[in-house]
Specification:
By secondary structure, the protein is mainly alpha-helical. The protein folds into 2 domains: 34 residues, no CATH class; 56 residues. 49% of the residues lie in helices and 9% in strands. It contains 1 helix and 4 strands; from the N terminus they run ββββα. Strands 1-2 form a two-stranded antiparallel ribbon. Strands 3-4 form a two-stranded antiparallel ribbon. β1 and β2 form a beta hairpin. The longest helix has 57 residues. The radius of gyration is 41 Å and the shape is elongated.
């Protein structure tokens, strides 16, 4: 038979939790200290580890192969970045030259008319 002890806040009976010195009241949630004579020791339990599968390779052995496989992706990413930085400069420059060219070509008839 499990012994109980009353909660000082609400008077409800509480069963001590195994391996605990303090606990919350099951009814009102008050913080309780379990009396020493009612403290219950827990039985230690051991967990079983699953057996290791013997055919696994370590990451240190696989690293060179993984790097060799990733190299084309990294090179492609670098080339794409280099192209983007070049185009980032080229597009505004080409747009500026185009606008200035249109302005220059548009002014040619005006200048031609002034010289006559």
């Amino acid at each position: 038979m499990t012994q109980t002890f009353p909660c000082p806040a609400c008077g409800a009976p509480n069963e001590p939790e195994a391996g605990q010195v303090r606990m919350a009241c099951m009814y009102c949630g008050a913080n309780l200290s379990i009396p020493e004579q009612l403290r219950v020791e827990t039985n230690p339990t051991a967990e079983r580890m699953p057996p290791k599968t013997g055919a696994g390779r370590s990451p240190e052995i696989d690293a060179p192969d993984l790097l060799r496989k990733a190299q084309p992706v990294a090179v492609g990413a670098w080339n794409l970045f280099a192209a983007w930085t070049w185009l980032r400069w080229l597009f505004p420059a080409c747009l500026t030259i185009f606008i200035l060219g249109c302005v220059a070509v548009g002014l040619i008839p005006v200048i031609w008319g002034l010289t006559r």
